[in-house]
Automatic annotation (TrEMBL):
<feature type="transmembrane region" description="Helical">
    <location>
        <begin position="150"/>
        <end position="176"/>
    </location>
</feature>
<feature type="transmembrane region" description="Helical">
    <location>
        <begin position="382"/>
        <end position="403"/>
    </location>
</feature>
<keyword id="KW-0813">Transport</keyword>
<dbReference type="Pfam" id="PF03553">
    <property type="entry name" value="Na_H_antiporter"/>
</dbReference>
<feature type="transmembrane region" description="Helical">
    <location>
        <begin position="206"/>
        <end position="226"/>
    </location>
</feature>
<keyword id="KW-1133">Transmembrane helix</keyword>
<feature type="transmembrane region" description="Helical">
    <location>
        <begin position="342"/>
        <end position="362"/>
    </location>
</feature>
<feature type="transmembrane region" description="Helical">
    <location>
        <begin position="21"/>
        <end position="41"/>
    </location>
</feature>
<protein>
    <submittedName>
        <fullName>Na+/H+ antiporter NhaC</fullName>
    </submittedName>
</protein>
<feature type="transmembrane region" description="Helical">
    <location>
        <begin position="76"/>
        <end position="101"/>
    </location>
</feature>
<feature type="domain" description="Na+/H+ antiporter NhaC-like C-terminal">
    <location>
        <begin position="207"/>
        <end position="482"/>
    </location>
</feature>
<keyword id="KW-0812">Transmembrane</keyword>
<feature type="transmembrane region" description="Helical">
    <location>
        <begin position="121"/>
        <end position="138"/>
    </location>
</feature>
<dbReference type="InterPro" id="IPR018461">
    <property type="entry name" value="Na/H_Antiport_NhaC-like_C"/>
</dbReference>
<keyword id="KW-1003">Cell membrane</keyword>
<dbReference type="InterPro" id="IPR052180">
    <property type="entry name" value="NhaC_Na-H+_Antiporter"/>
</dbReference>
<feature type="transmembrane region" description="Helical">
    <location>
        <begin position="47"/>
        <end position="64"/>
    </location>
</feature>
Amino acid sequence: MAEQEQETPARPVREPSLVDAVIPLITLAGLIAASLALFGLDALDGPVQVALIICVLVAALIGMRNGHTWADVERAARSAFTSITSAVLILLAVGALIGVWNLSGTIPTLVYYGIQALSPTWYYAATALICGVVAMTIGSSWTTAGTIGVGLLGVATMLGVSPAITAGAVISGAYLGDKLSPLSETTVLTAQLAGVDVHQHIKRQAWTSIPAFTIAFVVLLVISLAKAPDVRNPVGEEVELNSLDGIYRITPLNLLPLVLLAFLSLRKVPATLALMASTLFAGFLGAFLQPGVVRDFVGGDDYHAVVGSIKGIWSAMANGFSINSGIGEIDQLLSRGGMDSMLLTLWLIIGAVTFGAILEEFGMISRLVDPLIRSARSTGRLFLTVFACCFGLNVVAGDQYIALVLPTKVFRLEFQRRGLHPANLSRLAADSGTVTSALVPWNSCGAFMSAVLGVPTLSYLPFAIFNYASPTLSVLYGVTGFRIEKS
């Protein structure tokens, strides 16, 4: 009779204590505070990323002390990497698009026409409205900010209005459109998680999104009117307009890549494919419409039109576009982009979502959330708890999808038990998880917006009015009972 193999007993796994769950958060808060104190706004150029990696190791050590293995840590990290694959590809594609759109004249043309069409007396409010319409059409806050938003920031630079306020207006409009568009993946995901038809979800979402955007629009309009007399400089504007027209061939044809991007988005082509198609098309047009710019960018005495154009497009996609026109404002506006400009942001996102994945895998998030659910006896306190969890996960986990998925899954049964319609949860989760993600510097959304718009998150945060008016209204509805539906 064969001897039976003796199996090594598995090490027992303990549930994390409250102290176990709190230690990584305290470590994160301490290290981020220290990095901001030592490096200021430059903390996002590496110090915050290092802080997140250290927090990953702290959380991993706590999990291993409770019986988990290093293989469990690696499995959680792999799940984190898988969850951001789409974000990584979109980020790289946006970096390439910005570089080539500057080379081909798309962004300079947007700036040129924008300066003529938009006035500082209503610039911030108009920016929010334009981005809201575009985002609602294509269903993506990221694509809106990385394309139209970049152009509007360029116009702001030329007009002399505040880039920080403009960035806040771009983000306010972009997230309004993202939440109310049936093409938005976060809108569809939220509805699916809560068990609500997507069109019903959007209908309920409008009850907080439209009033919140109205508040943002009015405030931005007041700011525009208050600051307008001090910002317009007709002489400087005329010089800059002539300079752009002298460097590039300004023509509506330069805007065809933007039209292609909108068309592909409406046809529900994946964002990365749509962005890259628009990028390559812009490069092709630029080779014919902007041969002088391409020649100056590539350089070299043995320049060949075909080879030089390919080299210029390739280089702009990889390392961004640069120009030396002798006019500082134009050089600063257009010398940017490239996939490599997104690497710091990717580093930040990888650290943040890995930290969040380990906290979830080892039960530390549920250890913190469960007592909150038990203590939320009224509907108002329940709504406030959901908001706190969503926003807290945006801070701790650094990813809007974690902040959206986990609370919806955790609270769905509680809403059902209390007889609350699931549309209440889908609206609240979107208001609290999706919208507030852009307000956290190390969150994937906050890092993305800061990278593509060129404005630090903490600088635009006070002016992203929609992004905190929306969750405020959502929680207020829960407290007062307004628009709260029973199942």
